Protein backbone atom coordinates (compact mmCIF):
# COMPACT_ATOMS: atom_id res chain seq x y z
CA UNK A 1 0.00 0.00 0.00
CA UNK A 2 1.41 3.39 -0.98
CA UNK A 3 2.33 5.70 1.84
CA UNK A 4 1.17 9.26 1.96
CA UNK A 5 4.01 11.14 0.32
CA UNK A 6 5.39 14.31 1.82
CA UNK A 7 8.66 14.27 -0.09
CA UNK A 8 9.78 13.96 -3.69
CA UNK A 9 11.71 10.87 -2.66
CA UNK A 10 8.57 9.19 -1.35
CA UNK A 11 6.54 10.29 -4.37
CA UNK A 12 9.06 8.59 -6.65
CA UNK A 13 9.15 5.48 -4.46
CA UNK A 14 5.35 5.34 -4.43
CA UNK A 15 5.35 5.66 -8.22
CA UNK A 16 7.72 2.65 -8.31
CA UNK A 17 10.36 4.68 -10.11
CA UNK A 18 13.91 3.51 -9.55
CA UNK A 19 15.49 6.32 -7.54
CA UNK A 20 19.00 7.56 -7.00
CA UNK A 21 20.04 9.23 -3.78
CA UNK A 22 23.39 10.87 -3.16
CA UNK A 23 25.48 11.71 -0.15
CA UNK A 24 26.79 15.02 1.13
CA UNK A 25 29.21 15.28 4.02
CA UNK A 26 29.40 18.63 5.81
CA UNK A 27 32.82 19.07 7.41
CA UNK A 28 34.40 21.10 10.19
CA UNK A 29 33.69 24.46 8.64
CA UNK A 30 31.27 27.36 8.58
CA UNK A 31 31.61 27.66 4.82
CA UNK A 32 28.62 26.11 3.01
CA UNK A 33 30.17 26.56 -0.44
CA UNK A 34 31.33 22.97 -0.84
CA UNK A 35 28.11 21.24 0.23
CA UNK A 36 26.20 23.52 -2.14
CA UNK A 37 28.49 22.56 -5.01
CA UNK A 38 28.18 18.85 -4.19
CA UNK A 39 24.39 19.18 -4.06
CA UNK A 40 24.42 20.91 -7.44
CA UNK A 41 26.44 18.03 -8.93
CA UNK A 42 23.54 15.73 -8.03
CA UNK A 43 20.76 17.90 -9.48
CA UNK A 44 18.90 16.08 -12.23
CA UNK A 45 20.52 12.78 -11.26
CA UNK A 46 19.51 12.11 -7.66
CA UNK A 47 16.06 12.75 -6.24
CA UNK A 48 17.52 13.46 -2.81
CA UNK A 49 20.83 13.59 -1.01
CA UNK A 50 21.63 12.26 2.43
CA UNK A 51 23.34 14.79 4.63
CA UNK A 52 25.59 13.02 7.09
CA UNK A 53 25.41 13.65 10.82
CA UNK A 54 28.89 13.70 12.32
CA UNK A 55 30.14 10.62 10.45
CA UNK A 56 32.74 8.53 12.28
CA UNK A 57 31.65 10.55 15.27
CA UNK A 58 33.59 13.62 14.14
CA UNK A 59 32.19 17.00 15.14
CA UNK A 60 31.19 18.74 11.90
CA UNK A 61 28.67 21.31 10.73
CA UNK A 62 25.15 20.39 11.88
CA UNK A 63 23.45 18.05 9.43
CA UNK A 64 20.16 19.87 10.04
CA UNK A 65 21.63 23.22 9.06
CA UNK A 66 23.41 21.68 6.06
CA UNK A 67 20.17 19.95 4.98
CA UNK A 68 18.32 23.24 5.12
CA UNK A 69 21.03 25.08 3.19
CA UNK A 70 21.20 22.60 0.33
CA UNK A 71 17.41 22.60 -0.02
CA UNK A 72 17.24 26.38 0.06
CA UNK A 73 20.23 27.11 -2.15
CA UNK A 74 19.95 24.34 -4.72
CA UNK A 75 16.50 22.81 -4.50
CA UNK A 76 18.06 19.39 -3.87
CA UNK A 77 15.89 17.51 -1.39
CA UNK A 78 17.66 16.40 1.76
CA UNK A 79 17.60 13.13 3.64
CA UNK A 80 18.57 14.52 7.00
CA UNK A 81 20.64 11.92 8.83
CA UNK A 82 19.92 11.95 12.54
CA UNK A 83 22.03 9.98 15.03
CA UNK A 84 20.94 9.09 18.54
CA UNK A 85 24.57 9.15 19.64
CA UNK A 86 24.77 12.89 20.27
CA UNK A 87 21.29 13.82 21.50
CA UNK A 88 18.87 12.78 24.18
CA UNK A 89 15.15 12.50 23.44
CA UNK A 90 14.53 16.17 24.19
CA UNK A 91 17.08 17.28 21.61
CA UNK A 92 15.77 14.70 19.14
CA UNK A 93 12.20 16.02 19.42
CA UNK A 94 13.51 19.58 19.06
CA UNK A 95 15.53 18.70 15.98
CA UNK A 96 12.66 16.82 14.33
CA UNK A 97 10.32 19.76 14.96
CA UNK A 98 13.00 22.16 13.75
CA UNK A 99 13.62 20.05 10.65
CA UNK A 100 9.94 19.98 9.74
CA UNK A 101 9.73 23.73 10.34
CA UNK A 102 12.60 24.24 7.89
CA UNK A 103 10.94 22.10 5.25
CA UNK A 104 12.96 18.90 5.67
CA UNK A 105 10.89 15.98 4.40
CA UNK A 106 13.09 12.94 5.01
CA UNK A 107 15.04 11.76 8.03
CA UNK A 108 17.31 8.74 8.24
CA UNK A 109 17.38 7.33 11.77
CA UNK A 110 20.81 6.07 12.77
CA UNK A 111 22.51 5.03 15.96
CA UNK A 112 25.78 6.58 14.78
CA UNK A 113 29.39 5.42 14.86
CA UNK A 114 30.55 5.12 18.44
CA UNK A 115 32.28 8.09 20.06
CA UNK A 116 35.51 6.12 20.42
CA UNK A 117 36.01 6.63 16.64
CA UNK A 118 35.66 10.35 17.12
CA UNK A 119 37.99 13.29 16.59
CA UNK A 120 36.97 13.98 20.20
CA UNK A 121 37.14 10.43 21.57
CA UNK A 122 36.59 11.51 25.17
CA UNK A 123 33.02 12.56 24.34
CA UNK A 124 30.18 11.03 26.35
CA UNK A 125 28.00 8.89 24.09
CA UNK A 126 24.30 9.62 24.65
CA UNK A 127 22.18 6.78 23.26
CA UNK A 128 19.21 7.85 25.36
CA UNK A 129 17.15 6.26 22.57
CA UNK A 130 18.32 3.70 20.04
CA UNK A 131 17.56 3.98 16.34
CA UNK A 132 14.44 1.78 16.61
CA UNK A 133 13.12 3.98 19.37
CA UNK A 134 13.85 7.04 17.20
CA UNK A 135 11.76 5.52 14.40
CA UNK A 136 9.00 4.91 16.95
CA UNK A 137 9.26 8.48 18.24
CA UNK A 138 9.15 10.12 14.80
CA UNK A 139 6.27 7.96 13.58
CA UNK A 140 4.32 8.91 16.66
CA UNK A 141 5.05 12.58 16.08
CA UNK A 142 3.99 12.36 12.44
CA UNK A 143 1.03 9.99 12.66
CA UNK A 144 -0.43 10.86 16.03
CA UNK A 145 0.87 14.37 16.50
CA UNK A 146 2.29 13.39 19.89
CA UNK A 147 5.71 13.15 21.46
CA UNK A 148 6.97 10.13 23.41
CA UNK A 149 5.01 11.17 26.48
CA UNK A 150 1.83 11.54 24.44
CA UNK A 151 1.94 15.32 24.67
CA UNK A 152 0.26 16.99 21.70
CA UNK A 153 2.27 18.76 19.01
CA UNK A 154 0.70 21.78 17.41
CA UNK A 155 0.84 21.29 13.64
CA UNK A 156 2.63 17.91 13.67
CA UNK A 157 5.64 17.34 11.39
CA UNK A 158 5.01 15.85 7.97
CA UNK A 159 8.09 13.92 7.02
CA UNK A 160 9.34 10.42 6.37
CA UNK A 161 11.61 8.36 8.54
CA UNK A 162 14.08 5.98 6.97
CA UNK A 163 16.08 3.16 8.48
CA UNK A 164 19.42 1.53 7.73
CA UNK A 165 19.83 -2.14 6.85
CA UNK A 166 23.06 -4.10 6.66
CA UNK A 167 23.22 -6.81 3.97
CA UNK A 168 26.79 -7.57 5.10
CA UNK A 169 25.79 -8.46 8.65
CA UNK A 170 27.22 -11.78 9.75
CA UNK A 171 25.31 -13.46 11.28
CA UNK A 172 22.44 -12.05 9.25
CA UNK A 173 19.53 -13.41 11.29
CA UNK A 174 19.74 -10.97 14.23
CA UNK A 175 20.05 -8.11 11.72
CA UNK A 176 16.93 -9.33 9.92
CA UNK A 177 15.05 -9.52 13.21
CA UNK A 178 16.14 -5.98 14.02
CA UNK A 179 14.92 -4.83 10.61
CA UNK A 180 11.63 -6.58 11.33
CA UNK A 181 11.19 -4.47 14.46
CA UNK A 182 11.79 -1.21 12.63
CA UNK A 183 9.56 -2.10 9.69
CA UNK A 184 6.76 -2.93 12.11
CA UNK A 185 7.31 0.41 13.82
CA UNK A 186 6.50 2.00 10.48
CA UNK A 187 9.83 3.00 8.94
CA UNK A 188 9.04 4.50 5.52
CA UNK A 189 12.11 3.48 3.55
CA UNK A 190 15.40 1.67 3.96
CA UNK A 191 18.88 2.58 2.79
CA UNK A 192 21.44 -0.20 3.02
CA UNK A 193 25.07 -0.19 3.98
CA UNK A 194 27.53 -0.31 1.12
CA UNK A 195 27.47 -3.49 -0.93
CA UNK A 196 29.73 -4.61 -3.75
CA UNK A 197 28.67 -8.22 -4.13
CA UNK A 198 25.61 -9.01 -6.19
CA UNK A 199 24.86 -12.42 -4.61
CA UNK A 200 24.87 -11.02 -1.12
CA UNK A 201 22.70 -8.11 -2.21
CA UNK A 202 20.18 -10.38 -3.88
CA UNK A 203 20.05 -12.64 -0.86
CA UNK A 204 19.31 -9.66 1.36
CA UNK A 205 16.72 -8.24 -1.03
CA UNK A 206 14.99 -11.63 -1.12
CA UNK A 207 14.68 -11.46 2.66
CA UNK A 208 13.19 -7.97 2.30
CA UNK A 209 10.46 -9.18 -0.06
CA UNK A 210 8.24 -10.03 2.88
CA UNK A 211 8.02 -6.34 3.79
CA UNK A 212 6.23 -3.47 2.20
CA UNK A 213 9.17 -1.13 2.44
CA UNK A 214 11.20 0.45 -0.36
CA UNK A 215 14.84 -0.64 -0.22
CA UNK A 216 17.52 1.64 -1.61
CA UNK A 217 20.80 -0.22 -2.05
CA UNK A 218 24.03 1.49 -0.94
CA UNK A 219 26.97 1.70 -3.34
CA UNK A 220 30.35 3.30 -2.94
CA UNK A 221 32.25 4.34 -6.08
CA UNK A 222 35.97 4.19 -5.39
CA UNK A 223 37.82 7.33 -6.40
CA UNK A 224 41.15 5.51 -6.31
CA UNK A 225 42.69 2.12 -5.77
CA UNK A 226 43.67 3.27 -2.28
CA UNK A 227 40.04 3.90 -1.34
CA UNK A 228 38.98 0.44 -2.53
CA UNK A 229 41.92 -1.17 -0.77
CA UNK A 230 41.07 0.66 2.45
CA UNK A 231 37.49 -0.54 2.20
CA UNK A 232 38.58 -4.09 1.60
CA UNK A 233 40.99 -4.17 4.50
CA UNK A 234 39.24 -2.03 7.07
CA UNK A 235 35.51 -2.39 6.68
CA UNK A 236 34.69 -5.84 8.03
CA UNK A 237 32.06 -7.73 6.14
CA UNK A 238 32.62 -5.75 2.94
CA UNK A 239 34.74 -7.30 0.24
CA UNK A 240 35.43 -5.50 -3.00
CA UNK A 241 35.33 -7.95 -5.94
CA UNK A 242 38.86 -8.92 -7.10
CA UNK A 243 38.21 -8.09 -10.79
CA UNK A 244 37.22 -4.56 -9.89
CA UNK A 245 40.21 -4.25 -7.55
CA UNK A 246 42.58 -5.45 -10.28
CA UNK A 247 41.29 -2.86 -12.73
CA UNK A 248 41.66 -0.08 -10.16
CA UNK A 249 45.16 -1.26 -9.34
CA UNK A 250 46.14 -1.11 -12.97
CA UNK A 251 44.67 2.38 -13.29
CA UNK A 252 46.64 3.50 -10.25
CA UNK A 253 49.82 2.87 -12.22
CA UNK A 254 48.95 5.44 -14.89
CA UNK A 255 51.40 8.32 -14.50
CA UNK A 256 49.36 11.16 -16.01
CA UNK A 257 46.97 12.54 -13.40
CA UNK A 258 44.13 13.39 -15.76
CA UNK A 259 44.38 10.13 -17.67
CA UNK A 260 44.43 8.24 -14.37
CA UNK A 261 41.32 10.01 -13.09
CA UNK A 262 39.54 9.37 -16.38
CA UNK A 263 40.42 5.69 -16.18
CA UNK A 264 39.14 5.49 -12.60
CA UNK A 265 35.88 7.08 -13.72
CA UNK A 266 35.56 4.67 -16.62
CA UNK A 267 36.13 1.62 -14.38
CA UNK A 268 33.66 2.84 -11.75
CA UNK A 269 30.98 3.71 -14.29
CA UNK A 270 31.34 0.32 -15.92
CA UNK A 271 31.27 -1.64 -12.65
CA UNK A 272 28.48 0.25 -10.93
CA UNK A 273 26.33 0.77 -14.02
CA UNK A 274 26.35 -3.00 -14.56
CA UNK A 275 25.69 -3.58 -10.88
CA UNK A 276 22.74 -1.18 -10.81
CA UNK A 277 21.33 -2.41 -14.11
CA UNK A 278 21.38 -5.93 -12.72
CA UNK A 279 19.59 -4.71 -9.60
CA UNK A 280 16.95 -2.98 -11.73
CA UNK A 281 16.47 -5.99 -13.94
CA UNK A 282 16.42 -8.84 -11.46
CA UNK A 283 15.40 -7.51 -8.03
CA UNK A 284 12.70 -5.41 -6.44
CA UNK A 285 15.25 -2.82 -5.20
CA UNK A 286 13.64 0.62 -5.22
CA UNK A 287 16.77 2.50 -5.98
CA UNK A 288 20.41 3.05 -5.42
CA UNK A 289 22.18 5.23 -2.91
CA UNK A 290 25.41 6.49 -4.39
CA UNK A 291 27.90 7.38 -1.67
CA UNK A 292 30.29 9.31 -3.86
CA UNK A 293 31.74 11.40 -1.06
CA UNK A 294 34.53 13.51 -2.52
CA UNK A 295 33.76 11.90 -5.88
CA UNK A 296 30.54 13.63 -6.88
CA UNK A 297 31.76 14.02 -10.45
CA UNK A 298 30.94 10.34 -10.97
CA UNK A 299 27.21 10.72 -10.28
CA UNK A 300 26.31 12.22 -13.64
CA UNK A 301 28.09 9.71 -15.91
CA UNK A 302 27.02 6.79 -13.71
CA UNK A 303 23.32 7.65 -13.74
CA UNK A 304 23.51 8.43 -17.44
CA UNK A 305 25.08 5.04 -18.09
CA UNK A 306 22.41 3.26 -16.08
CA UNK A 307 19.56 5.09 -17.70
CA UNK A 308 20.99 4.99 -21.20
CA UNK A 309 20.92 8.78 -21.36
CA UNK A 310 23.40 10.24 -23.81
CA UNK A 311 26.32 11.80 -22.06
CA UNK B 1 31.46 -8.31 42.79
CA UNK B 2 32.67 -4.75 42.63
CA UNK B 3 35.86 -4.77 40.58
CA UNK B 4 38.73 -2.49 41.47
CA UNK B 5 42.07 -1.55 40.03
CA UNK B 6 44.86 -0.15 42.14
CA UNK B 7 46.08 3.34 41.31
CA UNK B 8 49.77 3.75 40.43
CA UNK B 9 51.88 3.93 43.60
CA UNK B 10 53.14 7.36 42.64
CA UNK B 11 49.60 8.72 42.54
CA UNK B 12 48.84 7.18 45.93
CA UNK B 13 52.00 8.73 47.40
CA UNK B 14 51.04 12.10 45.92
CA UNK B 15 47.57 11.87 47.43
CA UNK B 16 49.08 11.01 50.82
CA UNK B 17 51.30 14.07 50.46
CA UNK B 18 53.32 14.97 53.50
CA UNK B 19 51.35 12.79 55.92
CA UNK B 20 53.66 11.20 58.45
CA UNK B 21 51.27 8.49 59.53
CA UNK B 22 48.81 6.45 57.49
CA UNK B 23 46.24 3.85 58.46
CA UNK B 24 45.79 1.40 55.60
CA UNK B 25 42.32 -0.08 55.70
CA UNK B 26 41.65 -3.20 53.66
CA UNK B 27 38.25 -4.72 53.05
CA UNK B 28 37.28 -8.38 53.20
CA UNK B 29 34.26 -7.80 50.96
CA UNK B 30 34.56 -7.70 47.16
CA UNK B 31 38.00 -6.06 47.34
CA UNK B 32 39.39 -8.79 49.53
CA UNK B 33 38.20 -11.85 47.66
CA UNK B 34 41.33 -12.03 45.61
CA UNK B 35 42.25 -8.74 44.22
CA UNK B 36 43.46 -5.56 45.78
CA UNK B 37 41.94 -4.95 49.16
CA UNK B 38 42.48 -7.83 51.60
CA UNK B 39 44.85 -8.18 54.58
CA UNK B 40 47.68 -9.47 52.41
CA UNK B 41 47.39 -6.51 50.07
CA UNK B 42 47.23 -4.12 53.03
CA UNK B 43 50.50 -5.52 54.31
CA UNK B 44 52.11 -5.30 50.87
CA UNK B 45 50.89 -1.73 50.57
CA UNK B 46 52.55 -0.95 53.92
CA UNK B 47 55.92 -2.08 52.58
CA UNK B 48 55.47 -0.18 49.32
CA UNK B 49 54.50 3.05 51.07
CA UNK B 50 57.42 2.85 53.46
CA UNK B 51 59.83 2.27 50.60
CA UNK B 52 58.23 4.94 48.44
CA UNK B 53 58.32 7.53 51.19
CA UNK B 54 61.95 6.74 51.90
CA UNK B 55 62.92 7.01 48.25
CA UNK B 56 60.90 10.12 47.51
CA UNK B 57 61.26 12.16 50.70
CA UNK B 58 63.97 10.25 52.57
CA UNK B 59 61.58 10.10 55.52
CA UNK B 60 60.07 7.34 57.59
CA UNK B 61 56.36 6.77 57.50
CA UNK B 62 54.29 5.39 60.35
CA UNK B 63 51.95 2.87 58.74
CA UNK B 64 49.51 0.33 60.12
CA UNK B 65 47.68 -2.13 57.90
CA UNK B 66 44.30 -3.42 59.05
CA UNK B 67 41.44 -5.14 57.34
CA UNK B 68 37.79 -4.95 58.26
CA UNK B 69 34.87 -7.13 57.32
CA UNK B 70 33.13 -4.75 54.93
CA UNK B 71 33.86 -1.09 54.33
CA UNK B 72 30.36 -0.57 52.95
CA UNK B 73 28.82 -1.18 56.39
CA UNK B 74 28.70 2.03 58.39
CA UNK B 75 28.49 0.26 61.75
CA UNK B 76 31.37 -2.12 60.96
CA UNK B 77 33.51 0.81 59.81
CA UNK B 78 32.71 2.92 62.88
CA UNK B 79 33.26 0.24 65.49
CA UNK B 80 36.30 -1.38 63.84
CA UNK B 81 38.24 1.78 63.14
CA UNK B 82 37.34 4.00 66.12
CA UNK B 83 40.00 2.51 68.48
CA UNK B 84 42.77 2.95 65.86
CA UNK B 85 42.09 5.89 63.66
CA UNK B 86 43.02 8.66 66.09
CA UNK B 87 46.72 7.83 65.82
CA UNK B 88 46.96 8.46 62.07
CA UNK B 89 46.87 11.61 59.96
CA UNK B 90 45.43 10.01 56.84
CA UNK B 91 43.51 6.86 55.99
CA UNK B 92 44.25 4.89 52.83
CA UNK B 93 41.23 2.82 51.86
CA UNK B 94 41.81 -0.31 49.80
CA UNK B 95 38.09 -0.72 49.17
CA UNK B 96 35.76 0.56 46.47
CA UNK B 97 34.38 4.09 46.31
CA UNK B 98 31.65 3.11 48.76
CA UNK B 99 34.23 2.11 51.35
CA UNK B 100 36.12 5.40 50.99
CA UNK B 101 32.91 7.36 51.46
CA UNK B 102 31.74 5.28 54.41
CA UNK B 103 35.00 5.91 56.29
CA UNK B 104 34.81 9.62 55.42
CA UNK B 105 31.24 9.74 56.69
CA UNK B 106 32.08 7.91 59.91
CA UNK B 107 35.13 10.06 60.71
CA UNK B 108 34.46 13.64 59.66
CA UNK B 109 37.91 14.90 60.73
CA UNK B 110 39.92 12.38 58.72
CA UNK B 111 41.24 12.67 55.18
CA UNK B 112 40.53 9.44 53.36
CA UNK B 113 42.55 8.56 50.27
CA UNK B 114 41.35 5.98 47.72
CA UNK B 115 44.04 3.48 46.76
CA UNK B 116 41.89 2.09 43.98
CA UNK B 117 39.77 3.12 41.05
CA UNK B 118 36.38 1.45 41.17
CA UNK B 119 35.88 -0.04 37.73
CA UNK B 120 32.63 -1.99 37.48
CA UNK B 121 30.29 -4.67 38.79
CA UNK B 122 31.72 -7.78 37.29
CA UNK B 123 32.03 -11.53 36.92
CA UNK B 124 35.28 -13.30 37.67
CA UNK B 125 36.45 -16.08 35.39
CA UNK B 126 39.02 -17.86 37.54
CA UNK B 127 40.15 -20.15 34.73
CA UNK B 128 41.28 -17.20 32.64
CA UNK B 129 41.93 -14.91 35.56
CA UNK B 130 39.77 -12.26 33.91
CA UNK B 131 37.05 -9.95 35.12
CA UNK B 132 34.14 -8.79 32.97
CA UNK B 133 31.61 -6.02 33.48
CA UNK B 134 28.18 -7.62 33.69
CA UNK B 135 25.95 -5.10 35.43
CA UNK B 136 25.48 -1.32 35.45
CA UNK B 137 22.95 -1.24 38.27
CA UNK B 138 20.48 0.44 35.90
CA UNK B 139 17.57 -0.20 38.22
CA UNK B 140 15.39 -1.94 35.66
CA UNK B 141 16.55 -5.52 35.05
CA UNK B 142 15.68 -6.99 31.63
CA UNK B 143 17.87 -10.10 31.90
CA UNK B 144 14.92 -12.49 31.65
CA UNK B 145 14.07 -11.29 28.18
CA UNK B 146 17.67 -10.92 26.98
CA UNK B 147 18.78 -14.47 27.68
CA UNK B 148 20.78 -13.63 30.78
CA UNK B 149 23.03 -11.16 28.96
CA UNK B 150 22.86 -7.50 29.91
CA UNK B 151 22.63 -5.09 26.96
CA UNK B 152 23.18 -2.10 29.22
CA UNK B 153 26.53 -3.31 30.56
CA UNK B 154 27.72 -5.38 27.64
CA UNK B 155 26.69 -3.37 24.56
CA UNK B 156 29.01 -0.43 23.87
CA UNK B 157 25.96 1.70 23.06
CA UNK B 158 23.76 0.16 25.79
CA UNK B 159 20.97 -0.08 23.24
CA UNK B 160 17.80 -2.03 23.91
CA UNK B 161 16.91 -2.98 20.33
CA UNK B 162 20.18 -4.23 18.89
CA UNK B 163 22.35 -5.13 17.19
CA UNK B 164 23.53 -1.85 15.69
CA UNK B 165 25.33 -1.77 12.35
CA UNK B 166 28.69 -2.14 14.04
CA UNK B 167 28.86 -5.91 14.52
CA UNK B 168 30.74 -8.26 12.26
CA UNK B 169 31.03 -11.99 12.85
CA UNK B 170 29.54 -11.37 16.26
CA UNK B 171 32.23 -8.88 17.27
CA UNK B 172 31.80 -5.23 18.19
CA UNK B 173 33.42 -2.46 16.16
CA UNK B 174 34.29 -0.65 19.37
CA UNK B 175 37.67 -2.02 20.40
CA UNK B 176 38.38 -3.15 16.84
CA UNK B 177 36.33 -6.34 16.82
CA UNK B 178 38.01 -7.96 19.79
CA UNK B 179 34.94 -8.15 22.02
CA UNK B 180 31.64 -9.93 21.54
CA UNK B 181 28.60 -8.03 20.32
CA UNK B 182 26.15 -8.29 23.22
CA UNK B 183 23.18 -8.43 20.87
CA UNK B 184 24.57 -11.37 18.91
CA UNK B 185 25.18 -13.13 22.25
CA UNK B 186 21.60 -12.28 23.26
CA UNK B 187 20.27 -13.65 19.98
CA UNK B 188 22.26 -16.90 20.40
CA UNK B 189 21.22 -17.27 24.01
CA UNK B 190 17.53 -16.72 23.30
CA UNK B 191 17.67 -19.04 20.30
CA UNK B 192 19.16 -21.81 22.43
CA UNK B 193 16.43 -21.28 24.98
CA UNK B 194 13.63 -21.21 22.42
CA UNK B 195 12.84 -17.60 23.31
CA UNK B 196 13.41 -15.72 20.05
CA UNK B 197 10.02 -14.03 20.43
CA UNK B 198 11.67 -12.12 23.19
CA UNK B 199 14.42 -11.01 20.81
CA UNK B 200 11.96 -9.83 18.18
CA UNK B 201 10.07 -7.65 20.62
CA UNK B 202 10.44 -3.85 20.48
CA UNK B 203 11.59 -2.32 23.72
CA UNK B 204 10.26 1.17 24.38
CA UNK B 205 12.51 3.98 25.60
CA UNK B 206 13.78 3.68 29.16
CA UNK B 207 12.51 5.81 32.01
CA UNK B 208 15.72 7.40 33.24
CA UNK B 209 13.89 9.44 35.83
CA UNK B 210 14.22 6.45 38.15
CA UNK B 211 17.94 7.21 38.29
CA UNK B 212 17.57 10.96 38.57
CA UNK B 213 18.55 11.00 42.22
CA UNK B 214 21.13 8.91 44.06
CA UNK B 215 19.69 5.48 44.75
CA UNK B 216 18.11 5.13 48.16
CA UNK B 217 16.17 2.28 49.72
CA UNK B 218 14.82 3.14 53.12
CA UNK B 219 14.14 0.65 55.88
CA UNK B 220 10.48 0.09 56.49
CA UNK B 221 11.16 -0.49 60.16
CA UNK B 222 10.33 2.58 62.21
CA UNK B 223 13.45 3.65 63.91
Structural class of chain B: alpha/beta
Roughly what fraction of the amino acids of chain B lie in strands? Answer: 15-25%
> For the CA atoms, what is the radius of gyration of chain B?
22 Å
SSE-based structural type of chain A: alpha/beta
Give the CA-based shape of chain B.
Answer: elongated
Q: What percentage of the residues of chain A does DSSP assign to strands (E)?
A: 5-15%
Number of DSSP helical runs of chain A: 11
CATH class of chain A: Alpha Beta
**Total number of domains of chain A:** 1
Order of the strands making up the biggest sheet of chain B: 3-2-4-5
Rg from Cα of chain A: 19 Å
End-to-end Cα distance of chain B = 30 Å
Strand order of the largest sheet of chain A: 1-2-3-4-5-6-7-8
Quaternary arrangement of the chains shown?
Answer: heterodimer
Helical element count of chain B?
Answer: 8
Indicate how many domains the architecture of chain B comprises: 2
At CATH level 3, the topology of the largest domain in chain B is: Rossmann fold
Amino acid sequence: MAREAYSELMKMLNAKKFVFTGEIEPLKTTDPHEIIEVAKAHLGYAVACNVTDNPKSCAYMSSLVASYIIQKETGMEAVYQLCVRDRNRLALVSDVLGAATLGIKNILALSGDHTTFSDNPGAKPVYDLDSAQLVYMVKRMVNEGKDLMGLPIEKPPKLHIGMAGNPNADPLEPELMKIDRKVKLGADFMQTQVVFEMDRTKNFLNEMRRYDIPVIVGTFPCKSYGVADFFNKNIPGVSVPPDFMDKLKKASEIKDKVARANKYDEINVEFFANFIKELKKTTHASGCHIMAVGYERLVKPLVEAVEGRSA
Amino acid sequence: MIVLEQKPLEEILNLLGDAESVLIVGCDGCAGIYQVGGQKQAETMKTLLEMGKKLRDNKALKVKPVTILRQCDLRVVSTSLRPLIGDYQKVLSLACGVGVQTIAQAFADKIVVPANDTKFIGMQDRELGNLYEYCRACGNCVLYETGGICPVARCAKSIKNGPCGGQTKGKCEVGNYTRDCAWVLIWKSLKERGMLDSYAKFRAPEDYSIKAQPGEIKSEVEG
